[in-house]
Amino acid sequence: MVLPSSLRASFKYITLLATIVQLCISVWMYLNFKTGAAYGGINVENQFQFVQKLPWINLNLGALGKMQVDYFVGIDGISITLLVMTSLVMVIAALASWEIKSNLKGFFALFLLLDMALIGVFCALDFFLFYIFYELMLLPLYFLIGMWGGARREYAAIKFFLYTLFGSVFMLLVMIGLYLSVTDPATGNHTFNMVQMMNPANYAPGSVFSTLSHQTIFGFPARTVGFIVLFIAFAIKVPVVPLHTWLPDAHVEAPTPVSIILAGILLKIGGYGIIRICIGIFPDVAASGAFWLGLLGIISIIYGALNALAQRDFKRIIAYSSVSQMGFVLLGIASQTTEGISGAVFQMVSHGFLATMLFFLVGVVYNRVHDRDIYNFRGLGSLMPKYMVFIMIAFFASLGLPGFSAFIAEAFSLAGAFKSEAVNGLVPQWMAAVGAIGILFSACYFLWTLQRMFFGSLSLKGGEIWKIAMTDLNTREMITLIPLALTVLVLGLMPSLVFDKINDSVLALVSFTKNFVH
Amino acid sequence: MHDLLPLIPGYLQDVVDSIKFFMPEIYLAVLFIVVLLTDLLFGKNARQLVKIIACAGMFLVIVKDLEQISLLLVNGQTKAHFFFNNMVLLTRTGINFKFAVDVLAFILLIYFDWDNNLAKHRKGLSDLYSIVIASLTGLHLMVMAVNLLSIYLSIEMVSIASYLLVAYRSENSFSTEAGLKYVLFGAAASAIMLYGISLLYVYTGSLNLFGGNLVQGLTQVNHLPVAFALVLVLAGIGFKLSFVPMHFWVPDVYEGASTPVTAYLSTLPKVAGFALLINFLTPFIFFTRWNSFDFHLFLSIVGIITIIAGNFAALLQTNVKRMLAYSSIGHTGFALMAIVTFNSQGISALTYYLLVYGIANIGALTLASYFTNVTGAEDVEGYKGFGFKYPVASICFVIILISLTGLPVTAGFTGKLFVFSAVYGVYQQNHDIWLLLFMVAGALATVVSLFYYIKIPLYLFVKRNENAGESVSGSYNLIILSIILSLLILVFGIFPDLLLRYL
């Protein structure tokens, strides 16, 4: 913001540089990330790595003791992979921002603010801090969609904002309730520390969310209510059917870089929140409600896929396919088996890259002719051969072709769901079977789109003008797409890159939740 | 008469002893006379002079407020102090409230003549300054009054000043109507309150809230008439706080009055009114055998209705000032939530919330003034596309509105958080269903309020306006003021303990 307008052209380079530096830092962290049973994280504070803890708000509140909020960040296996994914996607999004032509200063300022909030969400271990970052994302996104979006951008932006805020204000209430229920054993104060919240022994007897006292809110068990409220907040983000209706609007209206951030990163915050907060803090409720989580997961898979089949807007298909793919995350989480949760995390990482790639590819066509209707294109394959190669990679990877990352992710999620009935009896086997049908549907819509748009003889709605406009990928676009395609392929061939890092944390989480499954 | 003679030295001594606790108010009275005289002596040429004197005087008053903190310290402990024959009570909370009122008044005094519509007034603004300062004396008394008589007097003092302020700009029929409406409503409200007070006096023979046998006496009277009288008194206070159903005057008056006066009305009397409500309720709440009227339930229901009515009515507005008027009703409801806790944490949360609300609301109206100055627009639709033309003002507007909505990282969010946690703390002990409903209503109101607050950034930035006229560069004064206010909001949002430590 302090830069004068004369440096107009440099904003994008500064932003790009910032994101690349961030990527380097996260890769460095990834390489230095220690693995082993001693670094599981989840519910043990000193097993987190790269921890930074500074006292932030310390208030003496008289009778209620001291209010303690720390700037407390740290990562474990679940955060590290998502962190690397986030920083790579941010680089891609910065590259995709080349299409933005108006008001660059505002755009990149908001972009970097959003970037900070996103990274913050994945690192925060203090609930208060988490909430601050979580809310801080909303405003930049509102303006990014609202100011640089498509025709119905106002509607899409406000819908997105209201949906998310609706979830998060109630999250605020639960957060305060948890805060007043939990005391830090070291200092005796109430604390927002998430790691302390996971230990049932830290709950003051008689407090609202205490595991022993069985309080009720409106006649329902308080912990169940707390879980449901948090789950709804994150389910809006994921998004889980029936809370998904903001997503197609927001994705379609947003400019390409924002669509990339939305699909690549924002949806993962929902999944991450469910794993870290819903399961971590309310494992007992998560165990008893696993059936419903799984059910919502498969409804998302099937409903999203069927909706994608019915669309004719290229971007909308991908938006609905996101709903469908994120359903696997929920199914994997619901199973609460090692395979299931690993699969869920892997699916988040993999979908982060794939969704980025898909939205970037849609952006390529849209930038050239400002149209996305599938029926208006035919036979693009002969006109843009390089483009088609990447489209095929992205499509086949997304529909779960072995050798690509999504295959591993979906296989593990489904394996977890199959195994669950035998291990802990949380999710019945038929859910896994239904989930597998979802993959079939995804093959249908991806292959149909591919066939409709790229095969056959060349025929464009815009005629000759479009034909001239539809140039093949340029160097910047190739630079953007090649690393994504490679990542997807490498992750498919060597899933251990992710699994090695997350394994200890997943094991810790599973053994932690196992105590609560009867 | 002769019987009273021996008492006179005692009373005189009491008055003399009380004076040292009354310094800020004496300064205000002197300031009032000085401002009035300057205006008379120097006439219209003295606009800046009057303003400078008023602001400097306010600064002194704020210093005097802070000096009072040490006055209350007895052996290292803060004690409340009654004086003027138990008419007024000075407490630590009272000092906080006075401080909040004076700081907000200071900002307002700076802002008054920067509003073009008000500055155009043909009689000049000098009278306005003296009226505001006179009303501040009344506000200080409101904060400290603990006798039904002094309560009534202080409220009247503030009301009369407010009537004058609202009618100050009467060039169009709408403003005149607003002024008249306000006077009529105010007169009716104070009559109702006076009736309630006289009923209370009839039941008990005492006017003194603390001491005397007012509260004790009321427990021996039939519950129904007591409740009736108390509701009447609360209605009078409610007029100042503008909670439902005493809110009908608010939208018209806020819209009709000139913008700085709206900023005055929506903040100062409200803050002082809450202090008065605390003083009024304290003896009842802490009287253990009190059983005739459930303040808790009454205020909860009123508060929930106020939150809902204020926020939903604001949804329909397009005039910026009218929208802020309804939203200020919603904020009253939210602040009532902190009152219902009746504990020290709730009260300090309330002080923080009100101060932050005051800063943000004055900031919002400052910017409304600014946009009216430069574009002539009073409706949101008139703001279309001006975000890029006046980027600094628009960004400040966004920050301030975000704070009013209560989203991080602004002070509005921390205020909301403190109120919620104070209420939650009480809920955890007594599991009162009303408190829970209160919190749910408050949370829902945040979502609703976002919808109308975001309208302003929506029109500023998102809606495009192809034929936006020539850009008029407005005065930098208002921009600088709003930048300072937005920075304050951000700083208190990130480091709330800077402020809350002292409350």
User: Which stretches of chain A are poorly predicted, pLDDT < 50 over at least 5 residues?
Assistant: 1-6
**SSE order of chain A, as H and E?**
HEEHHHHHEHEEHHHHHHHHHHHHHH
Kindly state the percentage of residues in helix of chain B.
over 70%
User: How many β-strand stretches of chain B?
Assistant: 4
**DSSP summary: helix tally of chain B:** 21
Tally of individual domains of chain A: 1
Number of helices of chain A: 21
Cα radius of gyration of chain B in angstroms: 23 Å
Helix content of chain A: 55-70%
- Quaternary state, please? heterodimer
What does this structure look like?
The complex is a heterodimer of chains A (518) and B (503). With 518 residues, chain A is mainly α. Chain A has one domain. Chain A is built from 21 helices and five strands. The termini of chain A are far apart. In chain A, 59% of the residues are buried. Mean pLDDT of chain A is 82; it is low at 1-6. Chain B has 503 residues and is mainly alpha-helical. Chain B has a domain at 294-503. Helix content of chain B is 74%, strand content 2%. In chain B, strands 1-2 form a two-stranded antiparallel sheet. In chain B, strands 3-4 form a two-stranded antiparallel ribbon. In chain B, helix 2 (23-42) runs antiparallel to helix 6 (126-144). Chain B starts with 6 loop residues before the first helix and ends with a helix. The model of chain B has no long low-confidence stretch (mean pLDDT 86). The A-B interface holds A 57-64, 67, 103, 131-132, 135-136, 138-139, 142-143, 146-147, 153-154, 157-158, 161-162, 165-166, 169-170, 172-173, 176-177, 179-181, 206-208, 215, 217-218 and B 343-345, 388, 398, 402, 407-409, 413, 416-417, 420-421, 424-425, 427-428, 431, 433, 436, 439-440, 443-444, 446-447, 450-451, 454, 457-458, 461-463, 495-497, 500-501.
